[in-house]
Prior knowledge:
The protein is built from 9 helices and 10 strands. The protein is an alpha/beta fold. The chain has a 6-stranded mixed β-sheet, with helices on both faces. A 4-stranded antiparallel β-sheet has the order 2-1-4-5, with helices on one face. The radius of gyration is 18 Å and the shape is globular.
Amino acid sequence: xxxxxxxxxxxxxxxxxxxxxxxxxxxxxxxxxxxxxxxxxxxxxxxxxxxxxxxxxxxxxxxxxxxxxxxxxxxxxxxxxxxxxxxxxxxxxxxxxxxxxxxxxxxxxxxxxxxxxxxxxxxxxxxxxxxxxxxxxxxxxxxxxxxxxxxxxxxxxxxxxxxxxxxxxxxxxxxxxxxxxxxxxxxxxxxxxxxxxxxxxxxxxxxxxxxxxxxxxxxxxxxxxxxxxxxxxxxxxxxxxxxxxxxxxxx
Length: 251
Ligand SMILES: Nc1ncnc2c1ncn2[C@@H]1O[C@H](COP(=O)(O)OP(=O)(O)OP(=O)(O)O)[C@@H](O)[C@H]1O
Ligand SMILES: [Mg+2]
């Protein structure tokens, strides 16, 4: 029998990039001329103070926000006019800063919806959903109504939805926010294994500096919508602009 997954085209893109992306909301410059590259197989951290433009950048990279100027390119192809569903089909998935589950559906159904949306039949969608839920350690809650989950498990289901039919890239908006230190560390441990387990590139926003410096191969730092630093964790931590962005000091 043909593997049902093989009938769904698998994403092959090797690079997702923001090229000179600016976003203006009325008078406010949420992003100004931001460049970012994410390659398959790497974990890239995105940090910056509240309101720096981090979520807006993820929104642009996933089709939820149109750049005012500049462009987002997937495997060098211009994505102008693509909606989020088209990004997902082409292999770009994301998680949200807050919930967004179908609260009256079961955990398994919440994840299956993504598989069906990507072209799987119901049965295959169920089996891939269970695989991802199992990997995230919540397969035992598959039959629970999503609305009854605690916050930590809600976050896990959001991640499961993003990882169904492994995307080429997963963009995670503060996946550990609101978790206890140990829950957050468990989750970040899983995030670290996403590139090898699923073959994805990972972009992750995370406020805990120790955690983000540990998991990221490279980082970008935004402040006031501008890139103020980028590089390896060691380079970024030694950068005066980062110290200034976080401590508000003049350097
Ligand atoms: N839809 C919108 N309309 C108007 N202003 C917006 C909109 N979305 C974001 N902004 C503004 O753009 C700026 C960047 O917001 P964004 O949510 O991207 O920041 P962030 O770095 O994700 O912050 P946080 O760490 O608090 O999540 C902020 O000043 C925010 O108020
Ligand atoms: Mg945000």
